[in-house]
Amino acid sequence: MQEESRVENFTIPRFEKIPFLVHGFGTRYWKEKDFKKHSKLKNFKLLSLAQIHSNIVQYIEKYHDKEVKGDAMLTDRSLILLFIKTADCLPVLIVDESRKVIAAVHCGWKGTSKRVLQKAVQGMQISYGCNAISLLVAFGPSIGRDCYEVGKDVYKNFEEAGLSTEVFRDHPLRKEKHLLDLKQANRSQLLSSGIREQNIFSIDLCTHCEKYLLSFRRDKNNAGRMLSYIGISF
Ligand SMILES: [Zn+2]
After folding, report:
1. What Rg, from alpha-carbon coordinates, does the chain have?
2. 156 domain-assigned
3. Among residues 6, 82, 149, 166, which is most buried (max CB within 10 A)?
4. For 93-107, what is each residue's pLDDT tens digit?
5. How remote is the CA of residue 143 from the centroid of ligand 1, in Å?
6. Is the pLDDT at 132 greater than 60, yes or no?
7. How far is the CA of 103 from the centre of ligand 1 (A)?
């Protein structure tokens, strides 16, 4: 029998090479109080959003302690730790190494159908002068393509938004259901925004399959949320 993993968070090796950057995708063992215990993170002020499955992008120019509504945060300021809360949805972290700009984005199916990730990339380009080809993007753990059952309404929603429906498969057993590849749907949006394929990194773990991750589909209202974070140290 395999021993349950006690890993607290996952990181992306390419992101670790960036001297000014801190980042991570927390598992069920990483709680908000852990930010204060970690030597590299303890000086940061924590900032998150009241996430509403929208495509609202918040531009963070200074720290504030109230949670504003939205599903993407962008900043070029140091010592503000942006964090996203998820349980099955896809957390996405973005960095422009040369311009020192970061983003954290919450992508569920609704936000994805509203192109929240594309909107965040556009915000980095328009407001901070970032170039799409120099952006590095990290996908955290999310519900996997074999586990993410959705109804016909979700399929229709993508179709009406003019998004590719190739990210859906018919459910092998249930006629009224589809399986959605949420990571692929967001990867497509990045590629059509001019992000290079080799600059997209991914933690390919399924929140629904792995017990040390949190899954709303599996655990319902007891699920809690995993914390994914990114910040500029200096
Ligand atoms: Zn799974």
Report:
1. 17
2. no
3. 82
4. 999 999 999 999 999
5. 6
6. yes
7. 27
